[in-house]
Amino acid sequence: MNDLKVLGTISRSHGLHGSVRVNVHASGAPELEKDEPVFILLQGGPVPFFVEECSISGLNRMVLKLESVDSVEQADKFVDCEILLERSKFEAPVNDATNNLIGFSVTDAIFGDVGAVSGIMETAQHPILEVEREGKTILIPWVEEIIKEVDIESEQIHIEAPDGLIDLYING
């Protein structure tokens, strides 16, 4: 079986011809090409479908038309199902927020040493790093505006936190 990663969740049908709206959860998600395989998690297992059309419809949303899904009724059967994609299709796969990052040091461009990653909180929008510093937990959103570099070899994550984010947790 291919190494699959959750792209997002099908939120509803779209239009009259079987398209679906997908809430994208994964960072680095690509725009999908015609005839590219995607997988819908049905009855506990991934079922392959091929993309007929894909369009981005806003921040963290896309509309997909899948081959052989040609009506609103067919599309509605997939509402709330997860849609997966081969992990290799995502941009910068080493920069995923996974439990492999637990223990990595986090360094901010201005603040300096922030602390060590103690966990990853999954949210619908994006993962959030839980960073421990002197008995306090600092929450850092895993978004490209903040996460600048992940150095796997040295187990370092370099960030540029917005003004006040780190102080909010430290000084309360």
Please, could you describe this protein's structure?
With 172 residues, the protein is mainly β. It folds into 2 domains: 4-91, Elongation Factor Tu (Ef-tu), domain 3, CATH 2.40.30.60; 99-171, PRC-barrel domain (SH3 type barrels, Roll). 7% of the residues lie in helices and 47% in strands. The strands form 2 sheets. It has a 6-stranded antiparallel beta barrel. Strands 10-9-8-7-12-11 form a 6-stranded mixed β-sheet. The model has no long low-confidence stretch (mean pLDDT 87).
Which blocks of ≥5 consecutive residues have pLDDT under 50? none
Write down the Rg: 19 Å
What fraction strand?
over 45%
For the sheet with most strands, the description reads: 6 strands, antiparallel, barrel
Class inferred from helices and paired strands = mainly beta
CATH class of the largest domain: Mainly Beta
- Look at the structure and give the mean pLDDT: 87
User: Looking at the structure, what is the overall shape?
Assistant: elongated
What is the fold-level CATH name, i.e. the topology of the largest domain?
Elongation Factor Tu (Ef-tu), domain 3
Ends apart, CA distance between termini: 47 Å
Order of helices and strands: EEEEEHEEEEEEEH
Reconstruct the topology from this structure.
Layout: E1 4-14, E2 19-24, E3 37-42, E4 45-56, E5 61-66, H1 72-76, E6 82-86, E7 105-108, E8 112-121, E9 128-133, E10 136-141, E11 147-151, E12 156-159, H2 165-171
Question: What features would you highlight for this structure?
Answer:
172 residues, mainly beta, Elongation Factor Tu (Ef-tu), domain 3, SH3 type barrels, 6-stranded mixed beta sheet, 2 helices, 12 strands, 47% strand, elongated
